Amino acid sequence: HHLPEEQMHTFWCVDRALGFLQKHDPTAPFFLNISLIDPHPPLTPPVPYYQRYIQRDLPPPVVGDWAPEFEGAQKGLDPNAWKICLDDHDIRCARAAYYGMINFIDDQIGRLIQYTGGLKDCLIIFTSDHGEMLGDHNLFRKTWPYEASARVPFLIRAPAKWGYPKESVCQSPVGLQDIMPTILDSAGIEIPNTCTSRSLLPIMRGETDRVRDCLHGEHSGCYDYSHGNHYVTDGHHKYVGYSQTGRQHLFNLQVDP
Known about the structure:
The protein is α+β, with helices and mostly antiparallel strands. It is built from 6 helices and 6 strands, in the order H-H-H-E-H-E-H-H-E-E-E-E.
């Protein structure tokens, strides 16, 4: 990588956040949004983070028997690089770099938490807008309805003074649309009755383990018109329908994620 750690965008974002926390009025409530670009192509983590993973045995991509097939590695197969087949070495390098970027983000978030003494009086939400296929099913990038792209980290920690249980795991599917009502609920602001998303505080309080029975997702064709899809999941099964082609998938996520 051509940049040292302290010149990475993730490091810069956390530095700006620390600067804000140093200057803001400690008696006033605040809302702080830290938006990181990584992990994202180009896959260029700091050198030590890449070396940490390229030296390990890494899981190979998962390729379903329904996935697009290629006779061999074909770099640059598509100008948008959404459909690509790399040789084992290049796939391993890409995955090591992606893992390294995630590790670097974790360490920078840790720097923020450690410096602030844990942000104990804050509601903290850690999530991502999408995943990365990273070679699964011979695909790269986002917008796909499969788990590597559609399933994202979603961690919430309540202020210690709220007295919530230390750990709870939601048994129903949730989505990024649930962030808004969760924040409104935590601030004591009424959630509009037009809102179809859900506050996740009842799950955190241990009052329930689900806020919905199933979750619907959709995406228009991004790299190709034929990619437009809808999916619905209850967390155990997922149905995928490609609206422009009629192609359908039904997955048992328990045995075939």
